[in-house]
Specification:
1 helix; Thrombin, subunit H; mainly beta; six-stranded antiparallel beta barrel; 110 residues; single chain; 42% strand; 6 strands
Length: 110
C-alpha cells in the first residue's frame, strides 16, 4: 500500500519510474552496518518503501543496513543502488503512513 492520502500537501520526487510517491525531505539520519560502522547521512526523499540518502561511500547493492531516523527506532533496510554520492534504500518493513507523515512534517519544521 502506498501513502497517498495527503498527496496534495507533499511535493513528490521527479522520478516517473516509481510506483510509490516519493516526498522531498531533509532529515539527518544514521546509517549503520557491521561493514560500514555508523555514518551520518541526509535523507533527500522518502516513501513508505524506501528513501534516497546522501552518502560519500560506494556501497554494494544488496548490502543490509540499519537506518535510524529522527525519533524512530532503527529499521532494517537494503541498499538498492549507489551512485553519484547517493544511496537508494529499500526498507525491510514499509513505514506506516502516519510515521511517513510525521517525518515529512518534522523535515519541514527544520
Amino acid at each position: 500500500m502506498t501513502y497517498q492520502s495527503a498527496a496534495d500537501s507533499f511535493r513528490p520526487s521527479q522520478s516517473n519510474s516509481r510506483k510509490e510517491l516519493r516526498v522531498e525531505v531533509h532529515l539527518e539520519s544514521v546509517l549503520g552496518s557491521s561493514m560500514l560502522g555508523k555514518r551520518k547521512v541526509e535523507l533527500l526523499d522518502i516513501s513508505n518503501f524506501g528513501c534516497r540518502a546522501v552518502c560519500s561511500l560506494n556501497v554494494e547493492p544488496g548490502t543490509k543496513v540499519v537506518l535510524t531516523m529522527p525519533g524512530l527506532a532503527p529499521i532494517g533496510a537494503q541498499i538498492r543502488w549507489s551512485r553519484q554520492g547517493c544511496l537508494g534504500l529499500e526498507f525491510a518493513t514499509p513505514l506506516h503512513p502516519l510515521i511517513l507523515h510525521r517525518l515529512v512534517a518534522e523535515s519541514r519544521e527544520a
